Amino acid sequence: MSQHNVKQFSEHISSESKNISLTTGNVLFKFLTMFSKKIDKMNNEIDNISNKMDNISDKIDLNNDIIESYLERISGKKRKFNELNQNEELEVNINFEEGSSQWRKNKNYLGKGLFEYKKTYRRSKK
Question: Is the overall model pTM greater than 0.85, yes or no?
């Protein structure tokens, strides 16, 4: 090879290596940009999930507060009821004959312990 050809060949290689390094740099830059956008998107999704979890946690806390106050109210009523039961006896008188006759007022006896309701007719409003 002549001196001139060697010089041209080395210039050609030098310019190609610059193009290759620029191309590699561009590819790396595009990859890093794309990767950065993916990371930003994932961080936004994580923030959204975190916010939803905070909302759920707040609702659970609120429900727990409601349940605790309800249980406190019930336990107070239960205590009062138990105190009543311990302190006084209640007399219970049930008149089953009267109850049975009242129950049968709106029923027809079919036999063999079967009943059906009496038909009632409602007047239509004009």
Answer: no
